[in-house]
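Hi P.,

Sorry for the delay on this. The queue was packed all week, but I finally got your sequence through. Input first:
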Amino acid sequence: MPGRVIGIYTACKGDKPELRDLAEVIAGKGIVGDRYFAGEGTFSEKLAGDRKSEITFIAAEEVDRFNRIQGSDLDYGDLRRNVITIDIDLNALVGKQFSIAGVVFEGIETCEPCTHLAKTVHKAVLPDMMNRAGLRAAVLTSGTLKVGDTVSLDQR
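Then the structure:
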């Protein structure tokens, strides 16, 4: 079964992430309506001009695993990643191009948890989500993502 999108989240500066059914993404910028698209994210100044702030992904299986081992009930959006996927190894996409509904992305690096996330979400995200907290990617082409879209590895 191919990987697919099961959730899309955006957040304005300081707000809780909001679940969306679809989102417009702009090449070189990110998701319209998200704090990093607007340059207002916690790390926007530090990441200015760096493509790894354009969009983030996290696997639902990793959030579910965290909840199971911690006895927690974090929502997928609580980890502050933009796109929630299922049935795809996101770490394997580092350095590769992949597409969702015709929108092309390039995996840049894993999206490791930070002390800010640990302070605001759950202290155990730092040790328990290392190498499991998602993927940072560049948006190479513009388009619309929807819940239910499939994720496919580009064979370029």
